[in-house]
Write a structure and sequence with these properties.
The protein is mainly beta and 397 residues long. Helices cover 7% and strands 42% of the residues.
């Protein structure tokens, strides 16, 4: 006999089992996302917090600037060269040197550079002194910003790992060199002489030991380098002179009359056309040298302090012993010798302080150009004796 009740129970049991399986599969599916066309992004990871934003308050480490100069070989354009990139740690100068004996020689020109990256730095150069290989040297601007103070000042070459940054590069497009001048001869094999183009290369500088130094002088025969003060915007009175030899002369030192010095000086090249070694001008043959109908006499500036300047009284001496300033500068002498009493007295009686102890001071404003020697009464005397010094005040111009 067919048991309908038993069959119904078995069907209900199978249906129940099926429902349980479907519920289990549904639970598993709920734990996983349904697939989509775009993959789901990974769970966000913890982003490192910049050091400046940490709870500890640490500072963000500064980036280290490594100075560098990048150069490419190039053609001269409008009397200038272009340096591709200069990286400077602070304000600086890019200085172009000619080549001399396989290394940087005379300065041909310079241009200021800013802190950090500088692209396409253009530097006007002295074409007369240019060589086929030039050097781009990076200097610091370590003194008065925007004023070239080297040599004799703080704007020295920049070094990385103990080496000066001065890559070489080749140039083209220089004016054609003068052709060799043949010496007339009757079949004799004599050497040809090259035409010498006279020139004078100058840089702004300090007065050192009462003298100025001219970087390079090229003379066609024996000559004289004459330093002039400025008067009405052009060369004025002669302050000093020095003989130069035929050809190239490097670092020509000329002692000058400090009493007549002006902020701007002129380095004028003269011929030594009469008795060699005897200065014969004016009224003699040692006349100024001209190139293309212009006298060879480039101007340059003396680097002088201004405003308010201090002189230390230390170890029974004045430091610096000679100070060059512009008119209107106030000089303050500070006694750093503890309980030792010093004073400041002009050789000519222009100024006189009381004796004062350590950390006390005396000030005087120099309004008129000239040379002002002075000394300390207890420890020196007039004429540079013992504890003595000199203030050189430059005239404007």
């Amino acid at each position: 006999m067919f048991n309908r009740s038993g069959l119904s129970k078995r069907r209900i049991g199978l249906v129940g089992l099926g429902l349980m399986v479907m519920l289990a599969l549904g639970a598993c599916a709920a734990d996983e996302p349904l697939p989509t066309d775009t993959p789901a992004p990974p769970p966000p990871s913890a982003m490192p917090v910049p050091e400046a934003e940490t709870a500890e308050g640490g500072a963000v480490p500064e980036m280290v600037v490594v100075p560098s100069v990048s150069v490419v070989d190039q053609e001269i354009a409008d009397g200038a060269v272009t340096i591709a990139e200069v990286v400077s740690d602070g304000p600086g100068w890019l200085v172009i040197h000619a080549q001399a004996e396989g290394k940087p020689g005379p300065v041909l020109g310079y241009s200021p550079v800013n802190d950090g990256h500088n692209e396409s730095v253009v530097v006007k150069i002295d074409l007369d002194g240019a060589t086929e290989t030039l050097y781009a040297m990076l200097h610091t601007d370590g003194g008065e910003i925007g004023t070239w103070e080297f040599p004799g000042g703080p704007d020295g070459p920049v070094q990385v790992d103990g080496k000066v940054i001065t890559p070489p590069f080749a140039i083209s497009g220089l004016p054609a060199a003068p052709a060799a001048m043949p010496v007339p001869s009757e079949g004799q094999a004599e050497a040809q002489e090259m035409v010498v183009t006279p020139s004078v290369a100058v840089v702004d500088q300090e007065i050192i030991g009462g003298a100025v130094t001219i970087a390079e002088v090229v003379s066609d025969g024996p000559g004289w380098l004459v330093i002039h003060a400025q008067a009405e915007g052009k060369p004025g009175p002669v302050l000093g002179l020095s003989p130069v030899a035929d050809g190239a002369n490097a670092d020509v030192t000329v002692e000058i009359d400090l009493a007549g010095a002006t902020e701007t000086l002129y380095a004028m090249l003269h011929a030594d056309a009469g008795e060699v070694g005897a200065w014969e001008f004016p009224g003699g043959p040692d006349v100024p040298v001209t190139v293309d109908e212009g006298v060879v006499t480039p101007p340059f500036r003396l680097l002088a302090a201004s405003g308010e300047i201090e002189v230390a009284m230390t170890g029974y001496s004045f430091q610096p012993g000679t100070l060059v300033v512009t008119a209107g500068t106030t000089v303050t002498w500070i006694n750093n010798d503890g309980q030792v009493r010093h004073d400041v007295a002009s050789d000519t009686g222009l100024f006189q302080s009381e004796l004062f102890n350590g950390d006390d001071s005396f000030s005087y404003t120099f309004d008129q150009p000239g040379v002002y020697p002075y000394y300390c009464h207890p420890h020196g005397g007039p004429g540079g004796d013992g504890m003595a010094g000199t203030i050189v005040v430059l005239a404007a111009g």
